[in-house]
Amino acid sequence: MTTSPVQGPRGPSRRRGRIAAATAVLSSLALLAACSGPPRSGTGSAGAGVGLSASTPPARGEIDSFTWAVYAEPPTLDYTAAFDYPQNTVLSNVCESLMRWTPGLTVQPGLARKASNPDPVTWVYDLRADVRFHDGKVMTADDVVYSLGRQRDPKNAAAWAQVFRNVTSITKTGPLQVTVKLKKPDSQFPQYMATAAGVVASKAGVKAAGKDYGTTGDLACTGPFTLGTWSKGQSIELERFDGYWGTKAKAKKAVFRILTDPSARTNAMLSGEIDGGYLIPTESYDRLRNSGVGTLWFGEGLSTVNVNITNMTGPLGDLRVRRALSLALDRSGFVRAGLGGAGTVTSSLTTRAAWAGASERTRRAAFDGLPPTTRDIEKARALIKEAGATGQSLTVATSSIGQDVSLLATAIQAAGTQIGLRINLKTIAPNAFTALFTDPKAREGIDMFPLTYYDSITDPLDLLQNFRTGAYMNFAGYSDKGYDALVDEATGAYAPERRMRIEAEMQKRVAEQLPWIPVAEWPTAVFLNKRITGAPTTIAYMYHPWAAGVGAAR
Q1: Do 503 and 464 meet the contact criterion of CB atoms below 8 Å apart?
Q2: Residue 424: what pLDDT?
Q3: pLDDT per residue as tens digits for the range 397-433
Q4: 211 within a domain of the structure (yes/no)
Q5: Domain that holds residue 318
Q6: Residue 430: how many CB atoms within 10 A of its CB?
């Protein structure tokens, strides 16, 4: 990544594996370091003329408070449900995981000071001593066993349950040691311990909160901030935790303002009512860039914008219809209008940066020969006619969250109309849009919706495993036994190069079958006014205590 700021435009969420012959003792830190961050130079997902940085300049001092914009109110801050932008933007500063994602998108120790892999199906986590929860009690192995157990418990319907599908047991093997046993080798499990899947909360605190955990009161975690006042529909306040085991936060308070209207968010930043925010409305790039109020920064987002196919029982069950829509989409126009020019068109479901751990040969294998991104309306019309789909109706969900959602829905409608389909738009409120990911009833009557998918780890399998039969985000029920076998094989391969060779084959297969239609890569953007600095610019803010670094700019 480059280190220069960009004062310009910017821009949810998972065998028959062969086991390697060698079973020598492996250090997890060596394994996790192999899952390196994205390339350190070039524009990556940013698009022409937009550079990327890992972070904004470090703060020069403490501040009393800062205000931050979020586009929707989290339905809960229970870490088992932390799968989307609003929840994680807040929660990452209150609750911490066994491992930690860095602003450079690498993995380092978190609440575990060390992780080791003595055999392919065992992971041992040695915990930091004297880490205290927000109530002052010391974290123990019992808290870790309980916290991870909540993710596995079917009664909780945890969004992260899929991460634990290969786990057979999580046991306390010492006062400050937890051992995880797997059914089979799982290259993804240790990486996900740096996400919300690896959060540790107080067993006593969670039990005391009962059914209200995550919606009122204390979150019983260890992070640099505690949950303060939550004014429903208006704001969430975090207060500095001075008993934090790590570096103390530079702000005494962080206030998250819930502003569902994109124009209201922008105007609040321009007026100084709001100090900053992620997920800047793309239509506001130029206004913020030219305002003189602050700086717009870009970092690697590991994010792709896609059309999520949610119903294959109708016309979209015919591959020719999905291919026709892909051929008819004006990706370049969408990047210009929907992403404010900050992004690159793609026919890949994965970002190029996700392949940083692969050799050049493997990266070429993953991307060479993918379907074209250029439009071909005549070919698309012919496919629709051949499929007997002319005049058939499809419904696309849209929302006023931002132009990245609303304009992509409009682009799908325009593409479908040009090739003989009838595309209806169904508008969903920003606060309800999250339900599309969790509630099958919310997806009833919807055939497609715009989806920006961010990788939670720097590995293509994070996205590619979504097309495994029965996967959490496989909403349309796509199933391919051969593909499932490849998912199992890749999951079982700890060596990054071997794993990514398998993933390259998976990428080619989904590119042909289009269970989602890829549209563009999209960098992360953050706006900071002149008063504050210190926020990371990359997607790491989803699982990194980013607000702790925000302080005075001068």
Answers
A1: yes
A2: 97
A3: 999 888 889 999 999 999 999 999 999 999 999 878 8
A4: no
A5: 300-522
A6: 20
State the pTM of this model. 0.85
- For residue 514, what is the domain's CATH number? 3.10.105.10
Whether 459 contacts 498, CB under 8 Å: no
Q: Assess contact for 15 and 487: CB atoms under 8 A.
A: yes
User: What region does 457 belong to: left with phi over 0, alpha with psi -120 to 50, or beta?
Assistant: beta
DSSP E strand stretches across 287-343? 294-309
Q: Where are the alpha helices (DSSP H) in 9-128?
A: 28-34, 85-91
Per the listing, tokens 């909540």 go with 150
Q: How far apart are CA 95 and CA 199, in angstroms?
A: 6
What is the DSSP code string of 467-498? GSTT-TT-TT----HHHHHHHHHHHT--SHHH
CB 344 within 8 A of CB 357: no
Q: How many Å apart are CA 305 and CA 350, to the nearest integer?
A: 10
Is residue 390 in some structural domain? Answer: yes
Number of domains in the chain: 1
pLDDT tens, residue by residue, 114-159: 999 999 999 999 999 999 999 999 999 999 999 999 999 999 888 8
Strand, coil or helix: what is 25?
Answer: coil
Both tokens of residue 214? 């995550």
Instruction: Please give the Cα distance from 213 to 138 (Å, whole number).
Output: 20
- Does 510 reside within a domain? yes
* 3-state class (DSSP) for residue 140: coil
- Tell me which residue has tokens 């016309």: 315
Structure tokens at 216: 């009122």
User: Within a domain: residue 479?
Assistant: yes
Answer for the pair 177, 139: CB distance below 8 angstroms, yes or no.
Answer: no
